[in-house]
Design a protein that fits this description.
Oligomer: single chain
Distance between the termini: 34 Å
Structural class: alpha/beta
Order of helices and strands: HEHEHHEHEHHHHHHHEHEEHE
CATH architecture of the largest domain: 3-Layer(aba) Sandwich
Strand content: 5-15%
CATH superfamily of the largest domain: Vaccinia Virus protein VP39
CATH topology of the largest domain: Rossmann fold
Number of helices: 14
Length: about 300
């Protein structure tokens, strides 16, 4: 296996792979998790993988894995989970769903994709380069107040207003077309440097989340996962920042406890829904050895739930 994803062993253990089981990898990426799942499946096992990035679909590892009759790869965002599962007759039949969130290493490593502030390239940031606005196009028209809100809410950037003001002022004379241009504007706007964190980190994260609507995608996919899983099926989600993890944590909590309409009190026991999921253990983080080998794993958090 060429690529070993973050929390690889832990994710496969959490999926509790059955030889004849059916699984969905919602974020194919470099194919590391898919390879691991396939290794645990027997001849009757089945794996459906999704990715919204055409580059992942066209990669060498994807082409190789598609020679395996047990494996199907679909170019799709994971908010289409129930649609794709239905097209493959998998609704209510899936033993495990895996979501490894965020941007992948190949996306970060290619300057032309515009995800990284470490290399100069076109300011794109789209996970699917065939659809939607680029980051450059979005920054060319977004108003200052809305931009500041995105930077603050999605990037948790305390200098959101300063950065937004600088960007809007600068674009009036010079269109912001490259990652280097954006980085320089952020560096000029941020008065204080955080230790061990580049000043552009939070802004790039916020713009990427907005351009790709990643948090809405996540919420939609989580909601749909319950319909796709069979009773006893596992949902395994790996997130890399607090906004994603908070959504996952709240979703599992909401689906795990008794639910009722607070507008109709008192509530009879027969009217209370017991929830469709049960939480499986505590949140899991990478160990010291993995963090030392892969610093990106430091922020990873994995949560697991099982359909009742």
């Amino acid at each position: 296996m060429q690529h070993r994803p973050v929390l690889f062993v832990e994710a496969l253990q959490a999926l509790a792979i059955k030889e004849q089981g059916t699984y969905i990898d919602c974020t194919f990426g470099r194919g590391g998790h898919s390879q691991g799942i396939l290794a645990g499946l027997g001849k009757q096992g089945r794996l459906l993988a999704l990715d919204r990035d055409k580059a992942a679909i066209d990669s060498a590892v994807a082409q190789e894995l598609q020679q395996d009759a047990r494996f199907t790869l679909v170019h799709s965002r994971f908010s289409a989970l129930t649609l794709i599962a239905g097209q493959h007759d998998l609704l209510g039949c899936v033993d495990g769903i895996l979501m490894d969130l965020g941007v992948s290493s190949p996306q970060l490593d290619r300057p032309e994709r515009g995800f990284s502030f470490m290399n100069d390239g076109p300011l794109d940031m789209r996970m699917d380069i065939h659809h939607g606005e680029t980051a450059a196009q979005w920054l060319s028209h977004i108003d200052e107040q809305s931009l500041a809100k995105v930077l603050f809410e999605y990037g948790e950037e305390r200098f959101a207003r300063r950065i937004a003001r600088t960007i809007v002022s600068s674009r009036m004379t010079n269109p912001i077309l490259t990652t280097r241009q954006l980085v320089e504007l952020i560096e000029d706007a941020v008065p204080v440097r955080e230790k061990h964190k580049h000043p552009a980190t939070r802004t790039f994260q916020a713009i990427r989340l907005e351009i790709n609507q990643e948090l809405n995608e996540l919420k939609s996919a989580l909601d749909q996962s319950v319909e796709v899983l069979k009773p006893g099926g596992r949902l395994v989600v790996i997130s890399f920042h607090s906004l994603e993890d908070r959504i996952v944590k709240r979703f599992i909590r909401a689906e795990s406890g008794g639910k009722y309409d607070p507008g109709r009190l008192p509530v009879k026991e027969s009217e209370i829904s017991k929830g469709l999921l049960k939480k499986m253990g505590k949140a899991i983080k990478a160990g010291d050895e993995e963090v030392s080998e892969n610093p990106r794993s430091r922020s990873a958090v994995m949560r697991v739930a099982e359909k009742i």
